[in-house]
F-box domain-containing protein
Amino acid sequence: MLDINSSGEAATAPSSREEGTVQKPEATINSLPDLVLGNLFKYLYWKEKILAVEAIPSWGRILESSLGWETFENDRKYAHYHQVLGSSHYIFEEITCIAQYGFYFSHVIIWIQNFIPTDSPIETDFALLRAVEMHCPRLKSLTVYHPPNLSSSAITMSYVQYIEPLQNILASEANVRLGLCRLLYSSVEANTGAVDLLYFYRVHNLLQKVTLLDFSHGLILASNVSALHLLSECHSLEVLKCPVQNLTTQLIQQLLDFNLQELYLVNDEHTLNLHYVEKDHISWPVLKTRPGRRFEVHYIFRNRAVCPGHMCLNPFAQTLVFDSLCSSVSRAMLRCVADLYGDTLQCLAFILSVWEPHVPFSDLEDLTSNFQYMATRLKKLRFALLNLVIPSDALLSLATHAPSLVKLLVYEHKIFFGGKVAITPDEISDLQFKVSTALGHPWTAIKQDENLYQLTECRQAMLFEESVALWEGFW
């Protein structure tokens, strides 16, 4: 690592010069090409970029260009864990940054935490949307994350502060891609909450233009299965996340005929209580996609029991997430996953367990062979995430027999050897060597105080929204 002095130069040890040798120019961090610096800036939080320029003023040229601002995200959860980035008045600093550099922004991600209409919207996060409208003429995409307890009625009463800036942004830049995320996750809703919200977006001409839509059903649940036919008016929709019971074969086909490419289906305790059976409502094999266009389906089973009868043949299935299940996963379930999705599944995740006692898998006596059966048949499985207690033999079996596996994420303290979780250094070292050999590259288990959710190749916030948000401190 170079030792950078106050002038931005790399300090070098003194050396004697021999007559006739050519003195090489002293390396300086300022000599890095702008494209290289721009790539480095992509990984910095917006406030880190400003602090970097305060330390090395010559980097100001990067901030005054699109190289420094491909994406702006007011990710306060990140600032919360880094004291130097924290603030007692985030909204003022964020608006100042948007006003100063927004001209260069291509993609903006706004996390709204304060969604309370007031007579002075400048003091709420609504003002961020207005700032983007005023200062970001080169915008290509805008994604808005909503507070999980925000109700549809609160949204519909916030036209001027919330909807109007979005309308103006879309009107001024016809090709801006709009994403509306985490709607009605834990809000108190009437039975028609999602319908009311979609109708509101439709009336104000947003439903037809949204490219990413992510909503749930709130806490007050419907008593019968009902498809949301208003979704058929989402002509620009590319990514959709919603409860599986809100869709039918016909509705999905309509969205595919438009532009749908990624579908995230939540199958939770509400789905179970409705006695919803997916194969009775959706016939995946009959769906037709446009030539050359991808279509991926990602399943999220959460807060419920699962058995093979709940699974459905789907040639588009790429992800299975089992999150906080209320039943242990059986031998039959593992084999069902392998038999149904062996030709398409690329990502598999088991997260936590609320089963008492906390035994995430049944049939422990042959779990290793069950994992081997599953792994050998999941021909395209590339990513596996296990946030639960797992025997070392089963873990090694997965790594050894999944032919395409490249990333295996598991907590070290949740691996147990021979019935015990207390791992000796020799045991973990031996396991790491064996898994590394099986994968063909170095592998280590994740430490307890580290973030397990490192599947940057996937839309993690869509797949693991509760776990990721709790880890990062947003909720």
